[in-house]
Each structure stands twice: as C-alpha cells, then as structure tokens.
C-alpha cells in the first residue's frame, strides 16, 4: 500500500533562517506531488506541484521554493523565512488528475 | 481563481443524530469532488468522492449528494459520533493538478 511521510511535525524558526521540509511517498511510482499551505481557520492554498523529477510548477509568487530530486521525494525550502511564512504545510500525492489526493500529516511552522 | 465555499462555518449536532454539511462550487465544468475530514493538527483525510456523472454516492455512514443544477454538494453523516468532530472540507478538482478547497465547516458532536 502507498504511504506518505512528512517531517518534521512542528518547527519553530527565527525570521531570516532557512527552511527545508521533506516529503516522501512509498509504494507508488511517478506520483503527482503537491505542497499546500493552510492558514489558521482557512482552506488550503496550493503552493507547488510536480508531475515528475525536476518538474516544478508554482501557483503563487512567494518566498518559498520546491524541488523534486527523486521520483518520490518532494522538498519545500526557503533561504530566508518571513513571519508571514508561518502556517500549516501539507504535502500530498495523487496517481493522476482525477484521482483522490492523499495528504501527509502536516508540518506546523512558526516563524518567530 | 475558482471558489469552493461552505454555507455554514460551524455545525453542532447531538450524538446519534444525522449531520448534513453543505458546499457550493462555482465552476460547472468541474467533474470530480472530494470530501475531506481534518482533525486538529493533522492532515486532511479522504472521506468520499463523487464524479459529475453521479448524483449520489454512499460509503460507510456517509453519503455525498451532488446537485449540478445549482452547483451544490452535501455530505451526510448518519448516526454522528463524537469521533466525527472535525473540520470538513469539500474540494473541487479543476483542470490539471489542482484541487480547490473551501474554508471548511467545523462539526461538533455533543454527547
């Protein structure tokens, strides 16, 4: 069966520090991968998606970047965090368009 | 962008009663919808999905109804239990690789 792992679960970082959140999927090949952000009391906002190694699409201009160095690995990064980067970050995968999305357990990021 | 919204931000029900959570979507071309349940501090969990060629789909204690005429989606939970307390999101699959969520409805089950 397929599983998705996301870490860390919580993170407190100072303003201006770098960020690296990692997500890996097991049990499938060539998944579509996604990074979402959820602000408190709000819905999910798509940040990045990837349909293959090295292929990254960005949905919104921001202080973050994403990379997919391996087929089942998706990384969310920042060189210098801003206060506004605080939020709940979720990684997700799907087999293809039109199939259900499966989410990771999320990372609670607090920038102080 | 497209909007997917929920009519009620909160819903409280007595344990054992049925719950109905509603959702409106704006794009009549959307052909796939998903309901997610999200507990505090956790990622969304898939509950049930429905495609636009269906009006109704049933799962274990849950039923999703789709009314394409008025672009309305609902989630019915039978015999609501305390473990059903969570935020429920409807999501609309639109185009390639995009999933639009509403802000969610918080369901509170009263013992």
Summarize the topology.
The complex is a heterodimer of chains A (112) and B (111).
Chain A: E1 3-7, E2 10-13, E3 19-26, E4 32-38, E5 44-52, E6 55-58, E7 65-70, E8 73-78, E9 87-94, E10 102-103, E11 107-111
Chain B: E1 4-5, E2 10-14, E3 19-25, E4 32-38, E5 45-51, E6 56-58, E7 62-67, E8 72-77, E9 86-93, E10 99-101, E11 105-110
Parallel strand pairs in B: 2-11
Antiparallel strand pairs in B: 1-3, 3-8, 4-5, 4-9, 6-7, 7-8, 9-10, 9-11
Report on the architecture of this protein.
The complex is a heterodimer of chains A (112) and B (111). With 112 residues, chain A is an all-beta fold. Chain A has a single domain (3-111), classed as Sandwich (Immunoglobulin-like). In chain A, 0% of the residues lie in helices and 57% in strands. Chain A has strands spanning 3-7, 10-13, 19-26, 32-38, 44-52, 55-58, 65-70, 73-78, 87-94, 102-103, 107-111. In chain A, the strands form 2 sheets. In chain A, strands 2, 4, 5, 6, 9, 10 and 11 form a 7-stranded mixed β-sheet that branches. Chain A has a 4-stranded antiparallel β-sheet with strand order 1-3-8-7, with no helix packed on it. The model of chain A has no long low-confidence stretch (mean pLDDT 89). With 111 residues, chain B is an all-beta fold. Chain B has a single domain (4-99), classed as Immunoglobulins (Immunoglobulin-like, Sandwich), CATH 2.60.40. Chain B has strands at residues 4-5, 10-14, 19-25, 32-38, 45-51, 56-58, 62-67, 72-77, 86-93, 99-101, 105-110. In chain B, the strands form 2 sheets. In chain B, strands 2, 4, 5, 9, 10 and 11 form a 6-stranded mixed β-sheet that branches. Chain B has a 5-stranded antiparallel β-sheet with strand order 1-3-8-7-6, with no helix packed on it.
């Amino acid at each position: 069966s397929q599983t998705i792992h996301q870490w860390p679960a919580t993170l407190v970082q100072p303003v201006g520090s770098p960020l690296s959140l990692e997500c890996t999927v097991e049990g499938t090949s060539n998944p579509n991968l996604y990074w979402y952000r959820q602000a408190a009391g709000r819905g999910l906002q798509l940040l990045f998606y990837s349909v293959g190694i090295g292929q990254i699409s960005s949905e919104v201009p921001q202080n973050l970047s994403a990379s997919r160095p391996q087929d089942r690995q998706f990384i969310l990064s920042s060189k210098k965090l801003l206060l506004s980067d605080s939020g709940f970050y979720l990684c997700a995968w799907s087999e293809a368009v039109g199939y259900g999305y499966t989410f990771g357990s999320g990372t609670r990021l607090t920038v102080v | 962008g497209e909007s997917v919204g929920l009519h009620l931000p909160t819903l409280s029900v007595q344990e054992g009663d049925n719950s109905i959570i509603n959702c409106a979507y704006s794009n009549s071309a959307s052909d796939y919808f998903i309901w997610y349940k999200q507990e505090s501090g956790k990622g969304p969990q898939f509950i049930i999905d429905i495609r636009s060629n269906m009006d109704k789909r049933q799962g274990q204690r849950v039923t999703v109804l789709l009314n394409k005429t008025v672009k309305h989606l609902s989630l019915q939970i039978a015999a609501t239990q305390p473990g059903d307390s969570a935020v429920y999101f409807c999501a609309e699959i639109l185009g390639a690789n995009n999933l639009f969520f509403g802000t969610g409805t918080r369901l509170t089950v009263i013992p």
